[in-house]
Amino acid sequence: MTHNKTLMTVSAGIAGLAGIALVNGHDNSKVQAATQTATVNYSQGTTTVWGSADFTQPKSYVSYQQTVDIYGSKQVGGTTWYLVGDNSWIPEIYLSFDNQTQNTPTDTTAVEQAPAEETPVADQNTATDATDNGGNVVTDTTNVSDTTTNETTENTNVTNTDLNKAAAVIALAKEQLGKPYVWGGKGPSSFDCSGLMHYVFANALGLEIGGWTVPQESAGTQISVSQAQPGDLIFWGSRGATYHVALYLGNNQYIDAPVPGRSVEIASISQYFMPSFAVRVL
């Protein structure tokens, strides 16, 4: 993965954060007079205000339909950013102006499929030999060590099933490669980061993990990134305030829907964009 930190540090989870302090007004000594106002158009949570126009410095948050003053704008990487305070920026996709229709993402719920039934494994009987009082060999066909054998078989089945489930989720995720990032997109034609995770688990396994990053944090057991296995979720940001999520593929690679202007892709974990923790769902 190249040093593309600026393009990889925000996704759907940011707009889903709740309970965060809102913008505290503007420092008029450092910015020019406001030229117009805009309305925050993201309805499914709060929207991040960035300390720079490059998705790298989360600064504060604004809520749906909150009005913000506009002090200027600039183009960065094909995205128009609006200055809403001293070193405070919001991308245009999350703002509506008086002459625009609000651009609220449509929440398309993925169709859930029932998980495939597992084929039971037949009990394995163990025959044992013994001698009677006359020294004759007697064959005992009872299920000696049956409990131990069944427990071992059950544990093997669980492991194999988990591997098969992970493979199914990964395979479906790879089928989405090249589909565009759209904020709030939950498929099948476009995705944001958490929408992609929701889609693949729901449609591959019939498993509901939540629609954005914070609920997805609780979809399984938290582990360190170094313990991640194929099929685990990996998160960026502190627990309860994560801003990006991806599906771990193994070999230091993951698949995700990164940022506006990009598509679902496979990337490598890098020290320049290091996940914070992982969650084992399966």
Automatic annotation (TrEMBL):
Task: Please state every residue range assigned to the domain named NlpC/P60.
Answer: 163-282
Keyword tRNA-binding attributed: no
Could you confirm whether the keyword NAD appears in this record? no
Q: Where is this region: Disordered?
A: 101-157
Q: Pfam families from the xrefs?
A: NLPC_P60
Q: Which SUPFAM superfamilies match?
A: Cysteine proteinases
Q: Which family does it belong to?
A: Belongs to the peptidase C40 family.
The protein's name: C40 family peptidase
Q: Which organism is it from?
A: Agrilactobacillus yilanensis
